[in-house]
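Design request, tokens follow.
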């Protein structure tokens, strides 16, 4: 039977005929989209799912429901949505910029990294741990899900950048300096007090150099525009925005404008499109919901740290379900998400765009509330005229290209040192 290589998979003659027919037919069925996506390496660059691994009652191997426990990623839903894997994020809450604050966050981050490793080692036939770009395709070919590791907010490093080597040895290959607030490394896009450093701090500039030395891709999501510009300017390899959106579509601080998108693309970088509703469009105020969530937030922080009993956790979940019933959230729609996606593609092209929907970290829109719905993105992109090759790049190859460049730069430094 005739076969053609398709990115990291195989495209049969029947699948190829489907692809060729898309040029003549604007409408694409979900079944057709599934057939195409199944042949591609499908990665998401920002999975906050590791936070669920330490929560009572959560089993990554079992199918869950967002309506029941608010989770969005598990193996059955990954299989249904044809998600091969991605970057599983280490996140620990940011506290004060003090030695005690750094140490507490560091310990939480290390425990989260160990939880990811435990998930992989406990299910060796289901997951494959990856530390190099070239490992992703063989893991998919073996019928497993790809587990790269990232760190969202490098606050846990404190002022000791040698800890970045520790996280590198644990498997981290993507790292962002900041989260919601400014820290010791630089300015966030959303700190209510405004900029502190005017971009990266002096320590943040050293952080960039150390990440380059190790072969870790720098992540500019959550960073302020000046911080992202500093990262692009200083980094010896392209950076990634692992879960961001378009400021031209909606002027939220977490999004980036067209000029910055073009600068990112010119440097070889990629933006991965976020599906966090509040960053996609202006949502109506819901003061009753906001008030109801105040008490719940303290409970959620305790659960985030893994300090909650099974009974307490179920009480928290029941309270949240009641809030969702009494004061349901208004979310952006799938069309809103695709507006960001398609605009960004028009600005920088399919070699600089990918997907990082922020699953289990607040992502999800009406019509796409968990990873089971991911083929809808493929369907919409095909209908918009993007090709199988474009989709292969968008769904995984762009992110892997940036990772490979980081790897190659680090190896070049090591080879240079050895030669001396």
């Amino acid at each position: 039977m005739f076969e053609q290589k398709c990115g990291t998979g195989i495209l049969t003659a029947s699948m190829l005929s489907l692809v060729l027919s898309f040029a003549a037919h604007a409408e694409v069925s979900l079944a057709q989209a599934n057939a195409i996506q199944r042949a591609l390496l499908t990665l998401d660059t920002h999975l906050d799912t590791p936070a669920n691994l330490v929560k009572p009652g959560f089993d990554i191997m079992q199918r869950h429901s967002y309506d029941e426990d608010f989770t969005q990623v598990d193996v059955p839903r990954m299989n249904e949505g044809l998600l091969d894997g991605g970057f599983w994020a280490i996140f620990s809450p940011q506290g004060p910029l003090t030695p005690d604050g750094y140490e507490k966050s560091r310990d939480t981050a290390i425990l989260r990294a160990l939880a990811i490793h435990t998930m992989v080692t406990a299910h060796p036939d289901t997951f494959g741990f990856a530390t190099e770009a070239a490992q992703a395709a063989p893991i998919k070919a073996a019928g497993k899900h790809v587990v790269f590791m990232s760190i969202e907010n490098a606050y846990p490093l404190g002022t000791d950048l040698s800890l970045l080597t520790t996280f590198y040895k644990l498997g981290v290959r993507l790292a962002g300096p900041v989260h919601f607030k400014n820290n010791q490394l630089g300015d966030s896009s959303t700190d209510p007090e405004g900029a502190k450093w005017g971009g990266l701090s002096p320590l943040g500039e050293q952080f960039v150099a150390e990440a380059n030395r190790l072969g870790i891709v720098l992540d500019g999501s959550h960073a302020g525009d000046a911080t992202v510009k500093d990262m692009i300017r200083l980094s010896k390899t392209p950076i990634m925005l692992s879960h961001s959106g378009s400021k031209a579509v909606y002027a939220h601080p977490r999004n980036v404008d067209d000029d910055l998108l073009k600068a990112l693309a010119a440097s070889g970088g990629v933006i991965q499109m976020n599906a966090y509703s509040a960053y996609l469009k202006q949502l109506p105020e819901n003061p009753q919901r906001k008030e109801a969530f105040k008490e719940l937030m303290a409970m959620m922080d305790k659960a985030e740290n893994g300090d909650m009993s099974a009974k307490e956790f179920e009480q928290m979940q029941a309270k949240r379900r009641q809030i969702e019933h009494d004061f349901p959230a208004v979310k952006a729609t799938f069309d809103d998400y695709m507006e960001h996606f398609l605009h960004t593609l028009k600005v920088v092209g399919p070699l600089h765009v990918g997907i990082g929907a922020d699953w289990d970290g607040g992502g999800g829109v009406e019509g796409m509330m968990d990873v089971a719905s991911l083929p809808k993105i493929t369907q919409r992109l095909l209908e918009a005229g993007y090709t199988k090759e474009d989709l292969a790049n968008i769904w995984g190859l762009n992110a892997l290209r940036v990772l490979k460049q980081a790897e190659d730069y680090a190896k070049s430094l090591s080879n240079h040192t050895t030669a001396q």
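Comment from the thread starter after seeing the answer: thanks! The two ends are 53 Å apart (CA to CA).
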